[in-house]
Amino acid sequence: MTMPTAPGPGTEVPHSHRRHRLAVAVLIVVIVLVVGAAVFVHQVEPNDPGPFYDPPADLTATKPGDLLRSEAFTPALPNTQGWRVLYRSTDPSGNPIAVSGVVLAPTAANSSGGPRPVVSWAHPTTGVASRCAPSLLDDPTAAMFGAREAIANDWVWVATDYPGLGTPGPHPYLIGQSEARAVIDIVRTAAALPTGAGTTYATWGHSQGGQASVWAGMIAQDYAPDLDLIGVSAAAPAIQLDTLVTADENTFAGRYLLSLGLVSWSEIYPDADLDVALSRPARPLARSIAKDCVESKNQSLVVAPKVEAALRLPFATVDLTTTEPWASIVAGNSANGPVTVPIFVGQGLDDQIVRPWSTRDALSTRCSDGETVQFVTYPGVGHLEAGDVTSPDAMAWIAGLLGGKTAPSNCADLPAVPAQDS
Fold first, then answer.
1. Tens digit of pLDDT for each residue in 220-261?
2. How far apart are CA 209 and CA 211, in angstroms?
3. What is the largest distance, in Å, between two alpha-carbon atoms of the chain?
4. 220 Cβ partners below 8 Å, 6+ apart?
């Protein structure tokens, strides 16, 4: 047998050999790209929650807000001490559950001498997988819009992860009462740590968190009569779920949010069958989308191709606003109930997810019902930046309430917004 040898100088390589070498080179490039993509995904996706997030086996002897576990960490904010916490809350069925979150407090001595007021932050959408909890981040404070101002004002800042994020799922995504209970209960938790926290609090949230914040205002009197809620504030709040579903269904954001919502609801509500709501090709994509987090730009790069693929497919097979059980889920979790404390809402006028006209319509109804509403709009601001842009005004509004000022209201002349069809 003669061993093949490399051709000498000037020797023509047969076409079949050249094609083979090209195929090998292409295969190597593909392998490198696939492995590189896998490494990238592994590096940008958050780790699974560790033992800290495992709930105690028995919660029957606990009360809402009880501190179950805590660990100190060093926040990336000046003059701030922080704790990751596990605390007791209540699930959609009324059962005791453990929820995780973060508590921040000033390191300096309490300047007022009395109990510190608390701001309860409700975060925007990060995903519905357990590992999408903001408290799992190396710097949980990075996207807590307003935390720096709150600490500088000598307030305590609390930030729930919501049920099923950090702790075992499912996460009740956009299920208002469940999120609101978690927002309220962590205020109680803060008093169990060396924070100086009192019982006076305000809620503040963005997008999904805006819905949770308004819902907290709706249930606070009945759910937490031991606490003193002074105001509800929100940026681009997802309070009109029917509009979110109908106006956004065929957009990139809409396919993403509907994937999260339908997967979550199918795990929470026994009759909400995902296979009935979605077309056959869309089902595996929605389930895959629901496994990813969007707490950073790199994480968004991972999920974006899946959402783009979902946009090219037939998606919902029923009208989610008129077909049961989804119609009742959508209507029942829209934040339409009465709020007896003042409300502040900031809305970007370039928001293509939570539409400005929808927010204004909801607030106009509240004004007609005699509620105290301050509605502030921001030209050129879209959905993603609304929390950051709105936070200085929201914190100033809360400071005014805490200082005894009469809550402002522009119900008599709500700011104009782009028309629905514009």
1. 999 999 999 999 999 999 999 999 998 888 899 999 999 999
2. 5
3. 98
4. 184, 227, 229, 341
Q: Is the pLDDT of residue 341 over 50?
A: yes
> What is the C-alpha separation between 319 and 280, in angstroms, rounded?
16
Residue 393: Cβ-neighbour burial (10 angstroms; 0-12, 13-18, 19+): middle
* End-to-end CA separation in angstroms for the chain: 78
Tell me how far the alpha carbon of residue 135 is from its chain's centroid.
12
Per-residue pLDDT band for 10 (boundaries 50, 70, 90) equals very low
Q: What is the token pair recorded at 246?
A: 């109908």
Q: What are residue 92's phi and psi, to 5 degrees?
A: -60, -25
* pLDDT per position as a tens digit, 193-206: 999 999 999 999 99
Q: Which of 210, 220, 98 is nearest to 163 (CA)?
A: 98
Best CA proximity match to 150, nearest among 125, 116, 178, 181: 116
User: Do residues 195 and 116 make contact, with C-beta atoms less than 8 angstroms apart?
Assistant: yes
User: Alpha-carbon distance 292 to 349, whole Å?
Assistant: 29
Give the Cα separation of 175 and 134 in Å (integer).
18
The whole-angstrom separation of Cα 51 and Cα 225 is 33
